[in-house]
Amino acid sequence: MVQGGLDAPDVTDDELVELYRLQGLTALYLGDEALARGAYEKLLQARPDFELPRSAPPKVRGLFAKLKEDLRHRRVHPVTLEVDPIPDPAPGDRVEVDAVLRDMALGARARLFYRRAGAQGFSSVDFVRDRARAEHYLAVLPAYELPVESTPYEVEYYFEVVDAAQRRLAGRGDPFHPLLFQVASKAAPATALTEGTSRPWYKSPWLWVAVGAVAIGGTAGVVALSSSEERGRVPITIRVEDAAP
Hints:
Number of strands: 11
Distance between the termini: 88 Å
Strand content: 25-35%
Largest sheet: 6 strands, antiparallel
Shape: elongated
Helix content: 10-25%
Strand order of the largest sheet: 5-6-2-1-10-11
């Protein structure tokens, strides 16, 4: 019954807190301490100040106290984001981004931020959980955001997962170092960028895996790049001028 509640649509954060509390309690009574720990971890990641009622059994209170201590020392499972970079789309096509999110904290939110290169602000779309595939989430960039134009243009974007307090849990790219894809012009096919306009190393379309963790009062992040023999290049110009006689 608890699992059915967790899978139900439109469940509020307060309802999820109670559902995870009940899941942890019933799992302990059934002898499944691993499931109980996972339920209480998800609860505490979003509500680190949550306290069990005084009527909770000693075994439950003991496990709960241990988990809170682990949280203080950042020993809980971090949120993990696995997502491929967006390939260069055809103009006028909508873009679907599939991501794998593991150990999502209660109340956490994953979003795709995007803007036309050179624009000041980012727009965003939410990742929505795919109920047919566990831990899979989907974000859709509408076709009207990639109009057909007479000249090619570039779109900057980044991924971000935040908790209920808007603390960053995981992500790829950021507003200052976004990733990038190119949309071809109406007459030109969508092709890779030429050597003369190669992407900066931090915008290279590799597979990124981002790992983040939230501790009480702060955030910890770990980022790992997939292995690649490709190397980025940073252009450096040195100008020497003759001194005046």
